[in-house]
Amino acid sequence: MSRPSTAPGFALWGDVAHPTTLTVADLRAGWAQHRADVVFDCATAGPQRHTFEGPLLREVVSLTRPAFDPARRKERSRFLLTVNGGDGHHTVLSWAEIDADFGDAPMLLATRMDDADLDGAGAQLVVPSDRCGARYVSAVTAIWIGACRTPGAPPSEG
Ligand SMILES: Nc1nc2c(c(=O)[nH]1)N[C@H]1C(S)=C(S)[C@@H](COP(=O)(O)O)O[C@H]1N2
Ligand SMILES: [Mo]
């Protein structure tokens, strides 16, 4: 299978110590690949069945060292993620959804869908627990990680 690297990397940024850019090849090389056989319902196209492979989202985003004390569950529970797709579609997640001490959802950043590597198209968010397909954001261009704000506080306050 050829793996053309036509898609640029996606940015990981936000309230993090180590913002970075990763390609699909980086996702494949850097973490254990998990497999997910999923079925989701599309409002316009009906039921969709796919097999995805890729690293766990929580392992990839942890690389950036989000600005919380990893030992403190309450701090982690204040964080959010936004996932941007190449066409402007985007979605929001909470850190707690993917955190093993909270929702423990095995979301993936897919490097492969069915029989095709995603190097050319870009990584795809996989949310196996979702009944609807809307959060399966394809051609990911950026993932922001950050704390929700409290009224009146400056944006940098964690
Ligand atoms: N970038 C991007 N990703 C997207 C969408 C989109 O419009 N743009 N639509 C979502 C919706 S509504 C669904 S149902 C699935 C459809 O995935 P499929 O066409 O590969 O089955 O993609 C999701 N991911
Ligand atoms: Mo959809």
Could you characterize what this model shows?
With 158 residues, the protein is mainly beta. The protein has one domain (31-147): Alpha-Beta Complex (Sulfite Oxidase, Chain A, domain 2). It has four helices and eleven strands. Strands 2-1-11-5-6 form a five-stranded mixed β-sheet. The protein has a four-stranded antiparallel β-sheet with strand order 3-4-8-9, with no helix packed on it. Strand 5 and strand 6 form a beta hairpin. It is globular and about 45 Å long. The mean pLDDT is 94. Bound molecules: the ligand Nc1nc2c(c(=O)[nH]1)N[C@H]1C(S)=C(S)[C@@H](COP(=O)(O)O)O[C@H]1N2 and molybdenum atom (MO).
Put the structure in a nutshell.
With 158 residues, this protein is mainly β. Helices cover 13% and strands 35% of the residues.
